[in-house]
């Protein structure tokens, strides 16, 4: 989705009224239809009409404690899963992706399958059981554009269903940030660990806290076992993805990376759980993020 994309309305329908049960997802003006179900409800799900449509599907689960996924396609998804994938023991959830009018054909779904595998491998969040990346089939220019538009919507819907295997938090390299150009509304933040000779910078852009490429981090997670939270997992994910690479005694960000919070960014840099609003400082001042935020909100309130 482009940065200036308009807001969209997602309609979720919990088929049996349970948040962890079978559900469908649709977006106004999108022809796509998503059916997501836990494996324990597979028989019921495959009896639904859309399960017999032409489409793509995702198998999600774990193998030996690590996340794993498989991306497939079929002219009849239910038949494909029954004949090929029911023998796979590791998956616990399936996502069926079709069009409401069943107007996708074989080449369409082969294209979507190839693109989803490409996107998943590029994001590098979850390993795929797919042994290869399938080649894109030849489609007319108009059909290819339609499938890319279909994919844009799909990649917006899936994270809303907590399927984040396609999310890329790396951001394009921008012009090098300059403290002289920073303003009250768009300052540069920095975190410094003097004893470890670590320095990192970040900016707020479009509601994202983006640590800049070239910023430094600890070489390894040093928090206690009790601190092995989602931040610990994120640290190791960034190492595995090559976003954090070893450089001397430290690690360095190879790309700009968008974090969900200042604490998440601080924890990855510090190698342990960190109070982000307290330790991220406005560059060139003695003001931390917490106080900067409070001041900004107070000024906005005065202006109302």
Tell me the radius of gyration: 22 Å
- The helix/strand order is EEEHEEHEHHEEEEEHEEEHHEH
Q: For the residues shown, what is the average pLDDT?
A: 89
Q: Summarize the amount of helix as a percent range.
A: 25-40%
Question: What does this entry look like structurally?
Answer:
With about 300 residues, the protein is an alpha+beta fold. It has two domains: about 150 residues, no CATH class; about 130 residues, no CATH class. The protein is about 30% helix and about 25% strand. The protein has eight helices and 15 strands. A six-stranded antiparallel β-sheet has the order 1-2-3-6-4-5. Strands 7-14-10-9-8-15 form a six-stranded antiparallel β-sheet. Strands 11-13-12 form a three-stranded antiparallel β-sheet. α3 packs across α4 and α5 packs across α6.
Keywords:
304 residues; alpha+beta; 2 domains; 6-stranded antiparallel sheet; 30% helix
Short synopsis of the structure:
The chain is an alpha+beta fold.
Ordered list of secondary-structure elements with their pairings:
Elements: E1 10-14, E2 23-27, E3 32-38, H1 42-45, E4 55-63, E5 66-74, H2 77-85, E6 91-99, H3 106-123, H4 141-160, E7 170-171, E8 188-193, E9 198-205, E10 208-211, E11 216-218, H5 230-241, E12 244-247, E13 250-253, E14 256-259, H6 262-270, H7 276-279, E15 281-282, H8 289-303
Antiparallel strand pairs: 1-2, 2-3, 3-6, 4-5, 4-6, 7-14, 8-9, 8-15, 9-10, 10-14, 11-13, 12-13
Helix pairs in contact: 3-4, 5-6
């Amino acid at each position: 989705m482009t940065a200036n994309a308009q807001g969209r309305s997602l309609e979720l329908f919990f088929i049996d009224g349970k948040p962890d049960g079978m559900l469908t997802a649709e977006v106004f003006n999108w022809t796509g239809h998503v059916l997501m179900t836990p494996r324990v409800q597979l028989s019921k799900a495959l009896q639904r009409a859309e399960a017999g449509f032409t489409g793509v599907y995702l198998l999600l689960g774990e193998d030996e404690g690590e996340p794993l996924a498989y991306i497939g396609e079929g002219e009849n998804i239910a038949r494909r899963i029954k004949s090929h994938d029911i023998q796979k023991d590791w998956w616990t959830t399936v996502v069926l992706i079709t069009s409401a009018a069943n107007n996708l054909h074989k080449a369409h779904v082969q294209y979507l399958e190839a693109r989803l595998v490409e996107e998943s491998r590029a994001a590098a969040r979850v390993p795929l059981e797919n042994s290869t990346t399938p080649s894109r089939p030849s489609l007319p220019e108009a059909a290819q554009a339609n499938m890319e538009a279909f994919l844009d919507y799909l990649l917006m819907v899936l994270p809303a269903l907590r399927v984040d295997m396609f999310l890329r938090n790396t951001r394009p390299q921008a012009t090098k940030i300059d403290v002289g150009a920073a303003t009250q509304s768009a300052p540069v933040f920095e975190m410094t660990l003097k004893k470890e000779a670590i320095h990192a910078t970040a900016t707020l852009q479009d509601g994202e806290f983006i640590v800049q490429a070239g910023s430094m981090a600890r070489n390894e997670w040093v928090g206690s076992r009790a601190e092995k939270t989602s931040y610990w997992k994120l640290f190791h994910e960034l190492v595995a993805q090559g976003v954090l690479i070893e450089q001397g005694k430290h690690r360095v960000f190879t790309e700009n990376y968008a974090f969900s919070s200042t604490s998440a960014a601080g924890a990855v840099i510090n190698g342990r759980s960190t109070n982000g609003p307290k330790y991220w400082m406005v560059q060139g001042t003695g003001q931390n993020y917490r106080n900067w935020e409070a001041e900004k909100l107070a000024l906005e309130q005065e202006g109302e």
